[in-house]
Amino acid sequence: MMQGCTQTTCPYCGVGCGVEVKQQEMVGDATHPANQGALCVKGAALAESLRMPTRLLYPKLSGQQVSWSHASEWIAEQFFQAMQQHGTDSVAMYVSGQLLTEDYYVANKLMKGYVGSANIDTNSRLCMSSAVAAHVRAFGEDVVPVSYDDLEHAELIVICGANTAWTHPVLFRRIQQVRERKPNVKLVVIDPRKTVTAEQADLHLALANDSDVALFNGLLRYAIDQQKLDDAFIEAHTQGFKALLEVVMQEKYQLPDVASRCGLSIEALSTFYRWFVTSQASMTLFCQGVNQAQNGVDKGNAIINAHLATGQIGERGAGPFSLTGQPNAMGGREVGGLANQLAVHRGFDPNSIHAVHQFWQSPRIAEKPGLKAVELFEALARGEIKVLWIIATNPVVSMPDNQAVREALADCPCVIVSDITADSDVAQYADLLLPAAGWGEKQGMVTNSERRLSRQRRFLSPPGEAKADWQAVCDVGSLLCAKLGAKDGFAFDSEAAVFREFAALSGINRDSPLKFDLSAYQTMSDEDYQNWAPTQWGGESPYRNKQFSYPDGKARFIAVEQGATGTNVENQAGLWWLNTGRQRDQWHTMTRTGHIEKLSGSEVEPTVYLNALSAQRLEVTNGEFLSLRHAERDHALLAKVAVDESLSLGQLFMSMHWAGVYAGGSQVNAAVCAEVDPISGQPAFKSSLVRASKANIATFGLYIGKNPPPVTSAYRAYQHQDKVGIWRFASEEPISLEVLSRSNSKYVTWQLPQGWIGIEIAAESLSTGLTEGKVGSILLSSPTPLNADYQALSVLIGQPVQWQALMQAAFATRVSQLVCSCLRVTDVQIEQAIAKQGVSNLVQLQSQLKCGTNCGSCVPQLKQFFN
Ligand SMILES: Nc1nc2c(c(=O)[nH]1)N[C@H]1C(S)=C(S)[C@@H](COP(=O)(O)OP(=O)(O)OC[C@H]3O[C@@H](n4cnc5c(=O)[nH]c(N)nc54)[C@H](O)[C@@H]3O)O[C@H]1N2
Ligand SMILES: Nc1nc2c(c(=O)[nH]1)N[C@H]1C(S)=C(S)[C@@H](COP(=O)(O)OP(=O)(O)OC[C@H]3O[C@@H](n4cnc5c(=O)[nH]c(N)nc54)[C@H](O)[C@@H]3O)O[C@H]1N2
Ligand code: SF4
Ligand SMILES: [Mo]
Questions:
Q1: Is 2.40.30.20 the CATH classification of the domain at 130-322?
Q2: CA 438 to CA 98: how far, in whole Å?
Q3: DSSP code of 95?
Q4: Which GO terms describe its molecular function (predicted)?
Q5: CA dist., res. 183 & res. 202, Å (int)
Q6: With a 6 A CB cut-off, is 436 part of the ligand 2 pocket?
Q7: Domain boundaries, the chain
Q8: Ligand 2 pocket, residue 392 CB under 6 Å
């Protein structure tokens, strides 16, 4: 690590927290406006994230190490040949909201200005594209009209389709702090699940899947009936109200009809409506429960409509607030890295095409939108894409119908993957694998949810030959320019130089109604770039003056209708609604967080949650397995059952994370074959119809040791611990003791009524015999679900065999769940403190067990113990 203190930005979620890296520790940056010193559990584990066991160090072509110059030349030649032989649209890039702005800018320039195709799309298609489209329709530009500080002024905070306590924890903590200071501020959560976020709300609306448009149209109707519209605002600053009025005056948007469509009580729904229309300042925060739907764009516009009609926008503490998922999803949108945008908030109209082309002075320019992510992989499957470069995303896990994505990649003649690890699932499909410099080793700019640009700064040297993504792209860009006989458009000598050019390009918006314009920074010195302090474009509220981004300055109402979309399980005999999302302690496909012990305990294996009645109907109980498959696909996945009353009947929930070495066989997107929103192309990850059936498991197993278990099985999950790993397995075939006789190690075994136990005697103590031999690994196997205390068992490794402790841990009566990851406090410890030590509130609990006193991400869960 370099000397002194580096101020940088967290590489996970779109809150965009500042991080201070000191010699020995990483802490929240108290001067950063996004977090004022706070970090969540993932941010607090950033130092551990750097100790990644499987970094990719050198470029590898067909598995063989090659030099960077060879690799770059190879890519440029592949691009050039495909462009010549199959046309420019046969080349594509699939990039990521986790790239830095500079990486994104040069990738976009390469594709749209030099290849001459807009076939560059990003994982933000899976994440933010519905919100982008809703913004563009309503405001004329993709602008988030509020700031985090607005939360301090809101009277009502609505969280719709987001589990903010887990996914944007530092922002949620801020909301809770506001409510502690101002108890009149109300929180409403709209989510079909009773999430940890919903548990904290004054009102939770557990709506039916994808019924959000009905709910918000109903709000408008209520505002009309109660004469709570802001007529002056509608008149002066909007267009299109009449068409919307016609929609919401239909009978189906009356309160009782909406309540029935959404599956809510009239009382709960009218309480929300009353709070909204009487509040002086309401904010509606939304995320994937809104965006990832077949009607995701309409949902976004339904929310925006409600704010426009009541004049709750542009004022302090009021407005719709699309939360960005990834650290630089917003920066990618600014650059224009979505296939349906050209650059800097411009689309494919003739003026924009001309202006961008003029600025780049490039040999070509893309003149039409390219393929959106799902279309891109479909074109790949049809063989239309000959060369695909994937950077900083793991689509074989994260795309819907990921088996089809795998097959398409396997058939593509030329796949290039840039990643930080060779262990990511997509790396297995690379013809050429490029080692990328990761967080802390590269630098550049990121923009968070509130349009604030912050710097990620370098404080480590990249390992091996790992290289920053922008440099890898520029190297190829320069070589391609030479092949095209064009002037080198990629001769940047630093990130700062890339950023200045990007800032200058955004100057084409100066004389337009668009708000996005960074041209003030086009001549910024290297030093100013290096010393950049977090800065918002558009200021606190870009629409404070009520001048929206359409040429006439007016916002547009969109007359959205609640369609038949949504997973109406009752009408689909034998099918179940599979809802998917995130866990508190993991990041996406686990490549960066799966190897961190502290983060591995909150969901230890692929788990499918369902309520007791659903479980009864499927004839499963806790610890058994469900086999899930999409209604129209053959491949099935196995996940462990956990009964969870936060879900409604017929609804299953699984996290999106399980992948790679952790549980490659249980990837949820094998069963999620989502429809896409027709406007944004964003997949409806939250509403799949699946077949679910009890898996007939003959052997349930747990293995604790330093190396993988000597057992093969259809289901296998790995939980990383620093000293010994934990593997859980399940097999439809019985696994008998004999498997151990095939292993090279010496095992001592016991057959018990509950199953059998095998203890491997560590090689170094073999000669001493069982009584003094040390435990090398432990294997438990049982015909019924195991209830083993893996933490207690791990402690026995390396110790002389302790029979009683072993039995107690192997067949525990109750297995504890980790609640506080930082201080390793479990639910059992908390319950004991409450029952036996008279702890009766959060403060007492925190002083007794210290849980929730480090990052605070578990505080919402701790509060549940006192509800
Ligand atoms: N811990 C953690 N935090 C993260 C990430 C991570 O991987 N791990 N990833 C980041 C990224 S990229 C993103 S995009 C964000 C996502 O952040 P969120 O959107 O907050 O998280 P999700 O869990 O995907 O889904 C949110 C909720 O939508 C609900 N939902 C499902 N269907 C509907 C519906 O029809 N209507 C409504 N109103 N709600 C519905 C689900 O029940 C779920 O609770 O998180 C970011 N933060
Ligand atoms: N079922 C279901 N599926 C979903 C979702 C859902 O809610 N449900 N959510 C969707 C959403 S919102 C999102 S954002 C996506 C996320 O899905 P992905 O983007 O596929 O997930 P990540 O694991 O973040 O992938 C990032 C990859 O980049 C690598 N990497 C990390 N840093 C760098 C770097 O600096 N350079 C390079 N070149 N590589 C790097 C990592 O090792 C990893 O392989 O998943 C989507 N898929
Ligand atoms: S809330 Fe957590 S994950 Fe998100 S930026 Fe802040 S520290 Fe990082
Ligand atoms: Mo996302």
A1: no
A2: 10
A3: E
A4: 4 iron, 4 sulfur cluster binding; metal ion binding; molybdopterin cofactor binding; oxidoreductase activity
A5: 11
A6: yes
A7: 6-50, 60-123+331-533, 130-322, 569-694, 699-811, 818-865
A8: yes
CA-CA distance, 94 to 394, in Å (whole number)?
A: 10
Does 3.40.50.740 match the CATH number of domain 60-123+331-533? yes
Q: Which residue, by CA, sits nearest to atom 8 of ligand 1? A: 587
Report the nearest-CA residue for atom 10 of ligand 2. 126
Share of the chain above pLDDT 90, in %: 86
What pLDDT, on the 0 to 100 scale, is given for residue 1?
47
**Fold classification of 569-694 (topology level):** Barwin-like endoglucanases (2.40.40)
Cα separation, 728 vs 733, in Å, equals: 15
Give 182-209 pLDDT, tens digit per residue. Answer: 999 999 999 999 999 999 999 999 999 9
Token digits for 755? Answer: 């199953």
- Give residue 24's pLDDT: 76
CATH top class, domain 818-865: mainly alpha
Residues 642 and 622 sit within 8 Å (Cβ to Cβ): yes
Both tokens assigned to 187: 């929180």
Instruction: Kindly give the distance from the C-alpha atom of residue 182 to the centroid of ligand 3, in angstroms, as a whole number.
Output: 25
Between CA 338 and CA 94 the distance in angstroms is 10
Which stretches within 45-128 are classed as H helix?
46-49, 68-86, 101-109
Residue pLDDT, tens place only, 770-820:
556 789 999 999 999 998 999 999 999 999 888 888 888 988 878 888 999
Q: Do residues 728 and 606 lie in contact, with contact meaning Cβ atoms separated by under 8 Å?
A: no
Substitution site in 195, 287, 855 for ligand 1 pocket (most atoms within 8 Å of beta carbon): 287
CA–CA distances in Å: residue 262 to residues 256, 288, 389, 682: 10, 18, 43, 23
Q: Which of 650-664, 788-802, 823-837 has the highest mean pLDDT?
A: 650-664
